[in-house]
Amino acid sequence: MNIHILIVDDDKNFIDTLEDGLKLKNVNVEITVAKSAREAIEELAKTVPSLIILDVQLPDMHGVEFMRTIRDTARFEKVPVIFISAKYTEPADRSEAMLAGGGSFFSKPVDIDELWTEIKYLLDKKK
Fold this sequence. Notes:
alpha/beta; Rossmann fold; five-stranded parallel sheet; 5 helices; 5 strands
């Protein structure tokens, strides 16, 4: 399975850990990183990823607002999105993310095995 994941997060340590953890899964995963909503929009103009891992708290836009923006574009309406947050972890935050079109929600720190299981589930569900 060839998977392209767009990670939208400005936390370098989290990105490095996530990239390393996904590479250890021995699957063909291409990872693109955007450190802001603006960078993510530039990246999405070039390609449609298999899945997006999206931080709720971006430096230039709230993740849920970003999600609503991309869901308004037909070519991204079926791309699964996993929300991740260190700060927004209350049930209301999770509900808002899911209502915006998120596939799931993880709190940081993230267990890589659980995240990988969710990635596989969302990608299989998308087929």
